[in-house]
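Researcher: Re-running this chain for the archive, since the previous output was lost when a drive failed. Same request as before.
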Amino acid sequence: MKVMKIDKRNWVGGIEKSRSSYRLFGPVKVKNKNFSVFKELDKGELPDMTATDTLLSPKSVCFPPSEVMMEYTTDETSADWNRMKVPGKDYSPRAVIGIRPYDAASYLIVKKNFDTPEYRDPYWYDAYEACTFVGLAVNEPSSLDFSTSTKSGPFDENGLDVLLVDAGESYLAKVITDKGKAYLKSAGWETEAGGDAENQIQSLKKKAEEAIRSVVDFDRIKEKSIMELHEAGFWEDVSFACINCGTCTYVCPTCWCFDIQDETAGKSGTRLKAWDSCMYPLFTLHTTGHNPRSTKVQRVRQRFMHKLKYYLDKYEDGIMCVGCGRCIRSCPVNIDIRKACRLMNELGSDTEACSVK
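Model: Regenerated structure tokens:
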């Protein structure tokens, strides 16, 4: 893999040059707020490469909070009367700049749900295929980062097309795929770093990984039965403080649940796809009035069982989490997925405890 060197004095010029070939997305600081969000970059707008993390994950690039799936009319005089029509979608090439490695890894988890041998979600998949992911390594992980425990990490290359490493006055750009190579070419960043660039990247990677102190183990969850974990005695304590706000699921890069609704105004209507959350009482409400998860403890248990047990059993490829720490940071009542994971992993053992490393 080649490593290119991007002088930061040429950064803005390269970003602007690439606009002719790509729609650009990246982290942007919200005015008068102490956080950043991922969004499409307006003309002249640059990705904030100093942002430690975004409040919401970049999953919205391919999976918007609300998206029109189809449009229809009930006007009997219209040629399109009672016909569902897919509105025009822009799937032209997109460059997602500054995405963190664990967020890029989350796309590979979500892909298992939206791109299967039986069914492919065209809304998500077509947007994903249009993306080139230009990641930014995490040189200084936060105290909530436990990505090295989840098959990811601060310099993880999985899911990325380019990995940018901040090396002071320049970025070292590791080319991972042909899509990444094409983006760098469009930006005019084709100067090979040469020399000791790869060793420099490895040195910064080692330092970043060693800085992560938060560790989560899930090696024993697989061997436990679903009912053993489902009926564990700790769920009441884990869920006690929860207020069912759904924040954990909205900030999570791997949560993929959505609802579909038809909305009509006059004789025009749209079919919408919108984020939903297993934390909400209506999520499982049947038309009969029966709700299989009517209580808070049932919903909290479902969230952690899905992330840490059901997904693990189904795909046998780790847990449904990339260790970004957003749900821990954003939870208004301090519920911690690391604690839940440890309780599940240590259930029945002599070392069972509630502490978090």
